[in-house]
């Protein structure tokens, strides 16, 4: 930063960065050059045009999961929800003519809806499709183990036995072949012809992060979206932007920066590609920063967030750290509007706000919003991790009360070490004003990639891996039942191993590595903590009883919960040289997601 602000030449600085990346073998020389030349001009603009950006702020936001923190006051902010905290609607106003209470299709008391869903009712079928990462350049037989973050291309050469790209995909650093994408859409549309809604939670573009381009990303987004429309012409599709859709990867700019650094091209291209999916009245918000809402009916709305704005590797956060693009203020206003008229809500995004790489301050503010509006937010859906998992939000002052379920994955791409998959949700949403919009059940479908590649002349054998209520041995999918399952996994290794197998979509190579107590605690802490600050504390907690991974105190009430403590804002004091190496390695891990 000092060199740039002292008048250092941009090309010289990029050459130096490329040399350092190559010399320390952070990644391949090809990737070093491509990434530095993609990110360099943007980072240079940020440093030169925002004097308040410091190394501490940048590290604290972008590398929190590697140990960096920051005391920068601009990076610590809190939304004032009191301006939205209006009195929830309980009764209809009296008619000025008759003096009697009137009912209206646009206004109802949501507290009067019975949460117990009758058996045998008509339901909605929702497809959750995420992290497709379709690779148009995938080459059957190419090397699967190369220096770059993605392989299986002609330029990688022919792989030796055991390292050759399979016909339908590969467990190594390879994305989804186009013909496998077509097979998946054909299978889903024929097996589930009654799909009503599709939650499409981002990442069409493959992992060639060092060689992407605006034109290439737009082509992939447009074509992949059109095929979904072709296979599911009658379904209501609600799409989300993923962190790989932009170029350079992860970079989502604030409003008003010069066009050569702006993300406006992506919002415009996606708005055109999704013009038949995004309501006209929501286009303005979408073009602003990629978030919008869809009113499915009078009683239900889907709110789509651009959670890439909170992703630590979106370096623009250091440029605009306080509620980037005003998204959380907008979210609170929209939830208040839904509460006022008695609407239930689902929230969609790409990166889950509880992810370790979502900036903690943003995640904390989101957590406050979910606590405030938990009565109407019935479920959340995200992607990004590629695993098949769920998480829970708990009441802020009563950690024994789970309030909002979060559903993540499963990815269609096998990148890396995963079987391709998708989810089908059964939802109580077909009863009009009586619908609760609760999740009744869900199932995950996969195919075994090893078996599929044994015979390229036959299509993969897709099958239902599990149904959640059966696999988790719970009566329903309520937050209470899911919380009981989490606590059972904490003390019962058999229950956890069941979840762990499904988490990896029954991929043998991943399961062969096993999961020790630290691994088990990491996954369970990820389920129950709403942001990285608490996740870090959860990992440090000592179990009260041998064999119990999460102590019972973690689910306690009020200030007794060990996660209610202040996790601090001290700045990082690790060695600068180690920080550089950590930065490079952490960056590559994140960019590869």
TrEMBL record:
Zn(2+) 2 binds at residues 203, 243, 350, 384. Residues 434-542 form the Sphingomyelin phosphodiesterase C-terminal domain. Zn(2+) 1 binds at residues 131, 133, 203, 386. Transmembrane segments: none annotated. InterPro entries: ASM_C (IPR045473), ASMase/PPN1_MPP (IPR041805), Calcineurin-like_PHP (IPR004843), Metallo-depent_PP-like (IPR029052), Sphingomy_PDE (IPR011160). Disulfide bonds join 21-32, 146-151, 152-174, 310-358, 515-519. It is found in: Secreted. Residues 124-386 form the Calcineurin-like phosphoesterase domain. PANTHER family: SPHINGOMYELIN PHOSPHODIESTERASE. Converts sphingomyelin to ceramide. This is Sphingomyelin phosphodiesterase.
């Amino acid at each position: 930063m000092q060199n740039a602000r002292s008048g250092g030449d941009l090309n010289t600085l990029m050459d130096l960065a490329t040399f350092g990346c190559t010399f320390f073998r952070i990644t391949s020389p090809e990737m070093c050059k491509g990434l530095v030349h993609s990110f360099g001009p943007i980072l240079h603009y940020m440093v030169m045009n925002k004097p308040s950006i410091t190394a501490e702020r940048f590290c604290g936001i972008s590398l929190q999961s590697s140990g960096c923190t920051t005391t920068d006051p601009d990076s610590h902010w809190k939304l004032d929800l009191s301006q939205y905290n209006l009195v929830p609607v309980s009764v209809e106003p009296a008619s000025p003519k008759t003096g009697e209470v009137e009912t209206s299709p646009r206004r109802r008391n949501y507290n009067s809806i019975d949460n117990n869903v009758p058996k045998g009712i008509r339901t909605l079928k929702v497809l959750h499709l995420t992290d497709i990462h379709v690779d148009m350049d995938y080459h059957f037989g190419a090397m699967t183990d190369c220096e770059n973050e993605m392989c299986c291309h002609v330029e990688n050469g022919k792989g030796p036995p055991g390292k050759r790209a399979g016909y339908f995909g590969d467990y190594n650093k390879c994305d989804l072949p186009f013909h496998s994408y077509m097979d998946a859409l054909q299978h889903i549309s024929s097996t589930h012809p009654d799909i009503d809604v599709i939650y499409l939670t981002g990442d069409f573009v493959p992992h060639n992060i060092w060689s992407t381009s605006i034109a290439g990303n737009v082509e992939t987004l447009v074509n992949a979206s059109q095929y979904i429309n072709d296979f599911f012409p009658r379904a209501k599709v609600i799409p989300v932007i993923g962190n790989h859709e932009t170029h350079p990867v992860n970079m989502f700019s604030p409003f008003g920066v010069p066009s050569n650094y702006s993300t406006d091209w992506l919002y415009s291209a996606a708005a055109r590609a999704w013009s038949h999916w995004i309501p006209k009245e929501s286009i303005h918000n979408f073009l602003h920063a990629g978030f919008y809402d869809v009113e499915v009916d009078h009683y239900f709305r889907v709110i789509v967030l651009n959670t890439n704005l909170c992703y630590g590797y979106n370096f623009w956060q250091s440029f605009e750290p306080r509620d980037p693009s005003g998204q959380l203020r907008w979210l609170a206003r929209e939830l208040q509007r839904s509460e006022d008229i008695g609407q239930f809500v689902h929230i969609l995004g790409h990166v889950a706000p509880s992810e370790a790489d979502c900036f903690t301050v943003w995640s904390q503010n989101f957590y406050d919003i979910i606590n405030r509006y938990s009565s109407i937010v019935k479920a959340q859906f995200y992607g990004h991790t590629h695993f098949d998992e769920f998480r829970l939000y708990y009441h802020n002052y009563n950690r024994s009360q789970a309030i909002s379920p979060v559903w993540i994955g499963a990815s269609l791409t096998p990148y890396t070490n995963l079987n391709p998959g998708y989810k089908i949700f059964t939802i109580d949403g077909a009863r009009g004003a009586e619908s609760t919009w609760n999740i009744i059940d869900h199932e995950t479908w996969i195919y075994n990639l090893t078996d599929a590649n044994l015979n390229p002349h036959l299509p993969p054998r897709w099958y239902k891996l599990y149904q959640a209520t059966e696999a988790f041995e719970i009566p329903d999918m309520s937050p209470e039942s899911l919380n009981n399952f989490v606590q059972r996994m904490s003390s019962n290794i058999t229950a956890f191993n069941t979840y762990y197998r499904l988490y990896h979509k029954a991929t043998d190579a991943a399961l062969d590595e096993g999961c020790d107590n630290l691994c088990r605690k990491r996954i369970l802490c990820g389920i129950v903590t709403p942001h990285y600050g608490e996740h870090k504390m959860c990992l440090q907690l000592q179990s009260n009883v041998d064999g119990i991974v999460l102590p019972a105190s973690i689910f306690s009430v009020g200030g007794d919960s060990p996660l209610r403590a202040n996790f601090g804002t001290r700045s990082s004091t690790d060695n600068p040289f180690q920080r550089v190496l950590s930065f490079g390695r952490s960056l590559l891990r994140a960019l590869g997601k």
